[in-house]
């Protein structure tokens, strides 16, 4: 799973996801891409599940680019622990995804195969998405 090698601070505040993506909203590498149509958190496990699903469908013939990275730590306190005594330990990592962000790109195979691979990957995500081609308007 994806985790950052090192961070400046161990823990981060939750924050809010507002507005649409300023960057990463265009196809840069492949010919077909998966675009988010809602905002939310995508965990490193979900990104890995998408990668595995898409890679297996194209039988490792295509090149797949992952355009998001989980760099936000998520903390959680153990079960049945009383209130107070500080913030919990880091449980995992998430990528904060805004509306309009390109999540995955596929290139090197025909459009029908790439589209089906991204459909399988989209089923693993907690946010709504749509598939776009490099000729489409966003």
How would you sum up this structure, described in words?
- The structure is a single chain.
- The protein is of the alpha+beta class.
- It has a domain at 32-78 and 86-133: Ribosomal protein L16/L10 (Aldehyde Oxidoreductase, domain 3).
- It has two helices and seven strands; from the N terminus they run E-E-H-E-E-E-E-H-E.
- It has helices at residues 44-57, 111-122; strands spanning 32-36, 40-43, 63-66, 72-76, 89-97, 102-107, 129-133.
- The protein has a four-stranded antiparallel beta sheet with strand order 3-6-1-7, covered by helices on one side. The protein has a three-stranded antiparallel beta sheet with strand order 2-5-4.
- Helix 1 (44-57) packs antiparallel against helix 2.
- 25% of the residues are buried.
- The mean pLDDT is 95.
Task: Outline the low-pLDDT stretches.
Answer: none
Task: Report the principal-axis shape.
Answer: elongated
CATH class of the domain at 32-78 and 86-133: Alpha Beta
Name the average pLDDT.
95
CATH homology-level superfamily of the domain at 32-78 and 86-133: Ribosomal protein L16/L10
What is the CA-atom radius of gyration, in angstroms?
17 Å
The order of strands across the largest sheet is 3-6-1-7
* Measured distance between first and last alpha carbons: 30 Å
Number of helices: 2
> What is the helix fraction of residues, given as a range?
10-25%
Main sheet specs: 4 strands, antiparallel
């Amino acid at each position: 799973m994806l985790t950052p090698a090192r961070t400046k601070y161990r823990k981060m505040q939750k924050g809010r996801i507002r507005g649409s993506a300023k960057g990463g909203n265009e196809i840069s590498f492949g010919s077909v891409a998966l675009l988010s149509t809602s905002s939310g958190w995508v965990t490193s496990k979900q990104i890995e599940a998408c990668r595995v699903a898409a890679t297996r469908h194209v039988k490792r013939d295509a090149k797949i680019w992952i355009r998001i990275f989980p760099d936000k730590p998520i903390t959680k306190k153990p079960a049945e622990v009383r209130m107070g005594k500080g913030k919990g330990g880091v449980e995992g990592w998430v990528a904060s995804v805004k509306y309009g962000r390109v999540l995955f790109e596929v290139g090197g195979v025909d459009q029908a195969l790439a589209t089906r691979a991204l459909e399988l990957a989209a089923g693993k995500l907690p946010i709504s998405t749509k598939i776009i081609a490099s000729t489409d308007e966003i």
